[in-house]
Protein 1
Amino acid sequence: MPTSAAPIIEITNLKKHFNPPDGPLAVNKISMAIMAGEIFSLLGPNGAGKTTTINMMCGLLTPTEGDVIIAGHSVIKEPLAVKRALGVVPQELAIYPTLSARQNLVFFGKLYGLGGSELNKRVDEVLEFTGLTERAKDPIEEYSGGMKRRVNIGIGLLHRPQIVFLDEPTVAIDPQSRRNILDAVKELNAQGTTILYTTHYMEEAQELSDRVGIIDHGSIIALGTQDELMQQVGEQDTLVFCVPDVPDEFIDTLGAIQGVNKALHVDDEIRLLAKDGRTVLPDAIRLINEAGLSLQSVEVHEPTLEALFLHLTGRALRD
Ligand SMILES: Nc1ncnc2c1ncn2[C@@H]1O[C@H](COP(=O)(O)OP(=O)(O)OP(=O)(O)O)[C@@H](O)[C@H]1O
Ligand SMILES: [Mg+2]
């Protein structure tokens, strides 16, 4: 979907301080715009402030400061008008387990003010869209995690909103449901829907997004198209060494190799950011061997959003 230059969402100085003065500053004065027709991903690790941001944007949570204008309406002053423009797919499932998918959709459709044949037609469309038609009559409690998520998504789409928020819709589900959800997001966007998608999977942000905002500790630390963001990492490569049982001190040894800008330990992997991966590789392999560690594989990656996060924060996106 070609995006327009017109913002459909404008976030200004949005802040959430839970339980002040000592509680967490979950969102720290975010300001940014989302353009009509784009897929915008908010990418950040656990606890970064993604859900808090979305919940303030849709009126579920009152901001400590700031406001969000959505399709011309202030979420603070005109929450109902905002809700009409929005479909929200929450991170936590909000469905009735003993009801079928169809019954859940009919129930929520009525809450949105739909009824009669219009509602039935829309429920059929949404079941088809989410790939649930064949199982529509089974109780949700018999569904897989991914199918439950798809029902959750369907509910958010019933009233044909012009903007849809999806909060980490693919966490802990099977690959087939994940594929279905990513394709559905693209299809919705192709039909003209503006999408705000949160995730901590950089692959998803890379596949879907027109623009990405990277959020960490409640602040947007990078924002732009993927090309713009990659320019911030510069020409750096990421070297990924799979080495079990590495002592943490050894990471500093690798970080000291000339040409290495950052070194990081994530599970069984050592990651090095380097201007030119190939020149660093022989030294790194020699040091790993000299330390008596078992090197199981080596990969050299071009710059990714993960590398940008590492570059900006010194940490991995996933913990
Ligand atoms: N109701 C609440 N009361 C107090 N603190 C909260 C509340 N909700 C969230 N927080 C805190 O705010 C911060 C941001 O949480 P949030 O749920 O927005 O993160 P997130 O980016 O959505 O993370 P995840 O990827 O795990 O869903 C965290 O430190 C969290 O503990
Ligand atoms: Mg969240």
Note: The pocket of adenosine-5'-triphosphate (ligand 1) is lined by residues 18-19, 23-24, 26, 44, 46-52, 91, 168, 200 (CB under 6 Å).
Protein 2
Amino acid sequence: MSYESLQQLAITIRGRRTIKMFEQRSVDPNIIKDAIEVARWAPNHHLTEPWHFYLLNDDVIKRSIDLIRIIVTEKKGEEIGNFKAQDAKKRPGWLIVTCKKSEDELTQQEDYASVCCAIQNFSLYLSEAKLASKWATGPIIRDQRYYELLDIDSNKEFIVGLIWYGYPKILPKQNRKEIDEIITYID
Ligand SMILES: Cc1cc2nc3c(=O)[nH]c(=O)nc-3n(C[C@H](O)[C@H](O)[C@H](O)COP(=O)(O)O)c2cc1C
């Protein structure tokens, strides 16, 4: 790999941003399927392939928004519940990513790590396609009512993320610490 293509890879990784504001246009489902195909090439100990990807249609999105309103209202009151539901209405694409449950603690930890890597792969692919995403872990992903709505068996898998995706309105700026703050050389 040339220095230029390495730098291109670095630009892609650095350039992926969590997006809160999306354009109101839909995404070609083939791009999302391609992104999922790439996502599952994440590192995965024992090749358990613990991930599953649920793509929501308009009706399920609508019911998800209703449930967000209900859950947030229960926790924080009607005003914030309505605000969160209105906000959720502006997200064009909805993807749920789950991880297989395991009784073995180490396997569970490693499987969860693999699913997180897969979500990063998915996000990077979208970013390179000039799309963007937001990985959300709000209370809905832990609520049994959402498992029932999606027909996901909570004894067998758990939701790692609700991924909103679409074309970004703006790419926000982000910072990270200085590189030397996070490296320790052990001699
Ligand atoms: C496991 C995980 C959960 C996250 N959950 C949320 C969330 O619930 N709401 C949210 O606004 N952002 C969430 N994010 C996105 C982070 O806030 C975001 O990655 C961070 O602000 C850095 O921005 P960047 O992704 O553009 O670098 C989550 C990210 C990760 C990795």
Note: The pocket of flavin mononucleotide is lined by residues 17-18, 134-138, 174 (CB under 6 Å).
